[in-house]
Amino acid sequence: MLSNNNGPIYKINDEIYLGHPGYQVLPKLPENLIAKPTLTWLYSNSEGKSHNLEVSYLTQNMNWNADYVVVVNKDDTAADVSGWVTLDNKSGAAYKEARLKLVAGEVHQAQDKVAGLVNAPGVAMAKRAAEAFQEKAFFEYHIYDLQRKTTLKDKQTKQISLLDAYGAGIKKELLVYGVKTYFSMQYREKLPKQPVNVYIKFTNSKDNHLGMPLPAGVMRLYKQDDDGSRQFIGEDRIEHTPKDEEVRLKSAKLLT
Description:
Blueprint: E1 9-12, E2 15-18, E3 24-26, E4 62-72, E5 78-89, E6 95-98, E7 101-104, E8 133-138, E9 141-146, E10 150-152, E11 156-169, E12 171-176, H1 180-184, E13 195-203, E14 217-224, E15 230-238, E16 246-255
Parallel strand pairs: 4-14
Antiparallel strand pairs: 1-2, 2-3, 4-5, 5-11, 6-10, 7-9, 8-9, 12-13, 13-16, 14-15
């Protein structure tokens, strides 16, 4: 069976049977028949010497996002930060041994769509996952250039390490957003409890073992308990954060 699109198509003894038991029989497939959706170009060279041809095009249903894991130490004074890039290819095509560049920023398009892909530690600063990605400025965005080739299969979700930083200094902040009526209302034996917001903040700087622009994404916070088990203590979403800027994560809301 060659296909089952709008009815079965069989190849029997090098002949093509459309339908069964055989309403139409073709002696062979035409040489110029393309069985799958394919983009082709015709080009001509008017000069005698050879030329390199570079073709650029936009594809859709190809996206990426960043996720981070922040592991807070026992005293809430430092944390290990790791970042991952998740690639999602639903473009209908596979890309073998492709060079990958990620653009961090909202690329505006006329149809209100965002192009995520361009035609796709411990002591000094963040190790960029063994130099997996190299970051550099481009126009008003930041490009993350994967320093090796990678294969993206169709309908595949794939993760690649973005950064690892160890021992970044953090501060814990407890913040209450009070209202004036709380202090002017009539006294009651049981006053309404005011929620206390718990924040973890750190500076995205080279001196703090980081110092590379961070793509927007979700940062998940963890901490080890007394048994050594890692416990989830909250998560927050960050916007695209330049280097030397502060990252502020809301971890929890407590009632006093």
